[in-house]
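Re: the 338-residue chain
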Amino acid sequence: MRRSGRLLMATSASIAALLFLLALLDYTGRVTLGHVLVIAALIGLLTGIDWPARQAIFPALIQRSQMMSAVTLNSILWQGTRMAMPAVGGVIITIGGTATVFLIATAGFIGMCFVLAGLNIGHTTGPHGTSGAQLIEGIRFVLRTRLFAVLILLTWLLSFFGVSYLQLMPVYADLLGVAEQGYGALISASGVGSVTGTLLVGIFFGARRFARVMLAFVTLAAIGLCLFGVIVSFASALPAVFHVALVCIFFIHLFVSAYLVASMTVLQLNVPDTLRGRVMGIHGINFSLIQLGAILGGSIAAAFGAPAAMFTGAAIISLVVLAIALTPSMVRSLDGRT
């Protein structure tokens, strides 16, 4: 665990240095598109290293009984900042320019370094072998453990075929006949739905057939995707279509967020400590596939129309959930009370 702490300090310090470099280039007027792309790519690389280490260290800071609350709080912070920070950033840019935003972000990562330095993290024996061997061991664990294989598969489906449609939202906003303000409202509806789902999922913890609850979340999200596709297809013929679309997006992200919080909690409570970083790192890769899913969705939209991309994603998710529900599985017998 101490090694994870040192790794987090290194990644935070490196990201802070890159953000400060970007702020300096911006302030001096020397920044180019190439600078932005390279720095963004490096930050993405560091974030990919940072994520598994964070997942490994969090359980050492809390009790098992606090896991659901911790995952929920983390999700609320992420979804809340996703909604609020663009508006805050706009105000900061208006007052102090874009370089000020990068400086504030730099200060945030420097502050993270000081927080990490002050944490008292217990020492545990780290994994043995090369990095490649450790990664293979993590993949083998996921593949042979039904609980992890199914929950990570469903997370991938929701990321790749589900919420990736957000990258195509300008197209859907155009089909709905709304301008920039309407587009902003659609994106905000997704954020409000995510926060709501994060807050409500705790009601279902403790259910005897908790696995069925999680499968229901995924199924309802797929149904919401399908309904949104229908609404977009007949936008010109349906009354109050924009408001109905907002409701659909709200519920899609409510159910997606509820599943993600529930599955993350279950995985964190069941993964062995020696494999936590690797397994949760594999799980975390799913969230990086949203943009890749948008490439597929964009290709389908270009060939068959934007609603077809929604229908395709909803159909694939529904078929996989049906296959899981019809086959014997540890996931189906998951008891929320334990």
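The mean pLDDT is 82.
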